[in-house]
Design brief:
About 25% of the residues lie in helices and about 30% in strands. By secondary structure, the protein is of the alpha+beta class.
């Protein structure tokens, strides 16, 4: 291969990378905008909606808020485990994983949400956890119901493999734990970002 061919191949690879990066930004505009806005300006405190929204199952009504990140979303109880049930719940908020503790109860309340999703997907919560990895230890996470409100304090924030099921464990030593999860990095499901918090009041 002579130098001209090598240069041509490098130019083609560079152009391909630029096109790919451009499409990634276009398809995930809201994700990038939320991160840039947070880095430049921070966020205003999240305001709770007027009232919690009933879940898909109709049995629970909670709102989850992370004031330091400006996040506020209904907690939707997934009707079953599996991608179909999860995606249906995620259209309307963040999803509670079946079989895990309820908010404020002893055990591990496990809630997950989108960091990004396809631009053509329906729903208003496709980027609800876009800036979740920026959360700081000690931050408050609030889950509010019609009659109860629980405040959790963040104790850990880290990346785990998608096959790590230990994060769903209900063995908490009688503690009341909240785990938030989102896909990571942008536009992939190569890993999960996990935030762990414990009831403080």
């Amino acid at each position: 291969m002579d130098s001209k061919q090598a240069i041509k191949i490098l130019k083609t690879l560079a152009l391909t990378a630029i096109i790919f990066a451009g499409l990634l930004v276009i398809f995930n505009y809201n994700y990038f905008w939320q991160n840039i806005r947070y880095d430049l300006y921070g966020v205003k405190q999240a305001a709770f909606p007027a009232a919690p929204v009933p879940s898909a199952a109709g049995a629970h009504s909670y709102i989850l808020a992370v004031p330091s990140l400006g996040i506020s979303a209904p907690v939707i109880y997934a009707t079953a485990t599996g991608e179909t049930a999860f995606q249906a719940a995620l259209k309307n908020g963040v999803a509670h994983y079946p079989g895990t503790a309820d908010p404020g109860q002893t055990g591990n309340c496990y809630i997950f949400g989108h960091s990004s999703d396809y631009i053509w997907s329906s729903g208003h919560y496709k980027n609800v956890f876009a800036i979740l990895p920026k959360i700081k230890k000690g931050a408050d996470i609030i889950i509010s119901g019609r009659q109860n409100q629980y405040t959790y304090t963040v104790t850990d924030s880290r990346m785990v493999s998608p096959g790590d099921l230990s994060v769903l464990s209900q063995q908490t030593g009688q503690k009341k734990i909240l785990t938030l999860q989102t896909s990571y990095p942008i536009g992939t499901a190569l890993a999960r970002w996990i935030v762990v918090a414990e009831v403080s009041r």
